Amino acid sequence: MAMGTPGRKPEPLHVIRMALALVFAAVAGAALGLVWHASGFGDPVTERAAERAG
């Protein structure tokens, strides 16, 4: 038994668009990670915090 309408064109999967979106997300995440790391937000203890602690 055939599934679907025989004269209907199959829907596109948009594989290239999804792959480009994945690459864009990876590059954007890496860039934001580098900015986060360079800004020092990820440091557990900064010099000012160590001075305040005693």
Summarize the structure.
With 54 residues, the chain is mainly alpha-helical.
**Secondary-structure element pattern, one letter each:** HH
Mean pLDDT: 83
Task: Report on the biggest sheet.
Answer: none
Number of helices: 2
Topology, number of strands = 0
Contiguous uncertain segments of 5+ residues = none
End-to-end CA span: 79 Å
Relative helix content: 55-70%
Category from helices, strands and their pairing? mainly alpha
Number of domains: 1
What does this molecule look like?
The chain is an all-alpha fold and 54 residues long. The protein has 2 helices and no strands. The mean pLDDT is 83. It is rod-shaped. It has one domain (15-53). It has helices spanning 15-39, 47-53.
Using brief descriptors, characterize the structure shown:
single chain; 54 residues
Helix/strand layout:
Blueprint lengths: L14 H25 L7 H7 L1
